[in-house]
Design a protein that fits this description.
Organism: Sphingomonas limnosediminicola
Oligomer: single chain
Protein name: OmpA-like domain-containing protein
Helix content: 40-55%
CATH class of the largest domain: Alpha Beta
Strand order of the largest sheet: 1-4-2-3
Strand content: 5-15%
Keywords: Membrane, Signal
């Protein structure tokens, strides 16, 4: 009997505390509308990623795959956001330099994309969350960049 009273008291306490902890959830009736949508689409996620990280692009010097200070700063912001969203898989796309031959653009883009992937993993982003690809002249992107895209 005593256990039942304690359980009922605990349940009543939790139920009375819930509205204070979860604003807007205490008035669930026919016209109930949550303050924010419960399901967020990929476009909203992309907008949030851009707002928090500043850019999807990481820039490199000519014919280089070495991460400079601005590139590392961008990746720190991107990694912080990606660690908060482990359910998302992102595509790391490497791009070559203007005027590169097809093969050279593919090789440079691959080195750049791998450099970004390695740094994101170093910053705590799970490797399984990242897919890497490179584009040559077939699908040009911003020159001298790696673009991190939510899929």
């Amino acid at each position: 009997m005593r256990k039942e009273i304690l359980a009922a008291t605990a349940l009543a306490f939790i139920a009375s505390a819930a509205p204070a902890q979860l604003p807007g959830l205490s008035k669930r009736g026919p016209g109930y509308r949550p303050e924010q949508p419960l399901v967020v689409g990929i476009e909203a996620m992309r907008a949030d990623f851009l707002a928090k990280s500043g850019s999807p692009n990481v820039y490199f010097g000519n014919d280089s795959a070495q991460l400079g200070a601005p590139a590392r700063a961008t990746l720190v912001e991107q990694a912080a956001w990606l660690r908060q969203h482990p359910e998302l898989v992102v595509r790391v796309e490497g791009h070559g330099d203007p005027g590169d031959t097809r093969d050279h653009a593919l090789a440079v883009g691959a080195r750049r994309a791998e450099s970004v992937r390695e740094y994101l993993v170093l910053l705590g982003v799970p490797a399984a969350q990242l897919s890497v690809t490179t584009w040559g002249k077939e699908q040009p992107g911003p020159p001298r960049t790696v673009t991190v895209l939510l899929r």
